[in-house]
Amino acid sequence: MPRQNSPIVGLDIGTSSVRVVIAELLDGQLEIVGIGEADSKGLRRGVISKPDLTVDAIKHAVEDAELMSGLTVNQVYVGLAGSSIKGQNSNGMIAIPGRHRAIAHEDVMRVIDTACAISIPSGREVADVLPQEYTVDDQDGIDDPLGMLGSRLSVSVHIITSPVAAKQNIISSVNRAGLHVAGVYLTQLAAAEAVLTDDDREYGVALVNVGGETTSLAIYQRGSVWHTAVFPLGGNHFTNDIAVGLRTPIPEAERIKREYGCAYRPLLNPEEASELIEVPSVGGRAPRAVSRQILCDILEPRAEEILSHVQDEIRQAGFDRQLSSGVVLTGGGAMLEGLIEVAEHVFNAPVRLGVPGDFQGLGDEIASPNFAAAVGLILHGSRRELGVSAGGRGQWRRTAVKPMRDRVKSFFGIKR
User: Is the pLDDT of residue 416 over 90?
Assistant: First the structure.
């Protein structure tokens, strides 16, 4: 099939890894044609701290993806993350001048601007504005008010703010890598695009993205984002706990976590619990042998701590009894064995692992929580490329990208 459009590229700059996914939009369908991954050593808690190392990692990941796809990457959609990202809800209302006049796009933009008239601390900026629902006169719960008749228009929005420098440093690093930034999108919202279904968003779900040094939360209900938060804890804390508890170098601790780690004791049968692991020591000392039970005793308390912070945030936001679709864990840190079982205990709700859905091309290669954010950035980019209006919440999912969402539903066995 001939190529009709320039590639859509998602760039997820994480604390542990930089991941790139290249896709082409053909006849309204996304085909994954290239992926790339490189170790990331230039970030601290999701924020760029060593630009040179970040630029090198971006270049390596992009080069790998270009080699696989046979395409040249010029622009990317990049994720925005970090423990300093904050979200808040706001409301706005305007009068519709003239009698019997349909609400126009200009009216929608004006009411959103009114809702965004909030006090923002110096050094911060609005990173994104997400409409939740509209009210026309006394009729609330409206997705898209365009064309409706009324004298008063109200809107509820979720406003995301970030430090000005955080976004500028991301753009600067991408530019130094020889690429143009086509758009910036919050990482946990990008991950949600890739792993949540329409039913999840409608009935209430908490998306928990476990990264290297941060864990981010996005709560959806009635099709929209109602709460976001970021916590300065992530998968690297498991690694550090192993390194300290077993007195082994960080690289060895990471390997042990990936190969033998389990965060939920009941998952280990007696034979597995007593299995011995060879642990290299520091300072030239001889290696030691420890059981998987001891490793689990190190990991389980940290898993409970991270997830308890998330649960406290959900409870304080008032959504602990409103998540009919439960909790979805995604991100590289979510792949730790036993984390889902710990989450079910902490949240007292159904929990599943969020994996990007069924895509054409290299779909199997990105079917991992690791790639949720990068794939979500492609979905976000496809909406921008198609020029779909963002006037109503969820509007883009009902138009050109609908076939993609249907395939995700099919992947999870959800009836249309």
Answer: no
Number of neighbours of residue 86 by Cβ within 10 angstroms: 17
> Does the pLDDT of residue 239 top 90, yes or no?
yes
Cβ atoms of 41 and 58 closer than 8 Å: no
202 class by beta-carbon count within 10 Å (0-12 exposed, 13-18 middle, 19+ buried): middle
86-162: what fold?
Dna Ligase; domain 1 (3.30.1490)
pLDDT per residue as tens digits for the range 170-197: 999 999 999 999 999 999 999 999 999 9
- Mean pLDDT across the chain: 87
Q: Taking Cα atoms as reference points, which of 136, 130, 30 lies closest to residue 87?
A: 130
Instruction: Spell 54-67 as b/e; 16+ CB within 10 A means b.
Output: bbbbbbbbbebbbe
pTM for this entry: 0.87
Closest CA to 54 of 169, 182, 215, 179: 169
pLDDT tens digits for range 3-32: 446 899 999 998 888 999 999 887 778 889
**Contacts of 236 by beta carbon, 8 Å cutoff, 6+ apart:** 15, 16, 212, 213
Q: What is the pLDDT, as a whole number, of residue 303? A: 96
Would you say residue 148 has pLDDT above 80?
A: yes
214 to 196, 203, 304: CA distances (angstroms): 20, 26, 15
**Structure tokens belonging to residue 160:** 């995301």
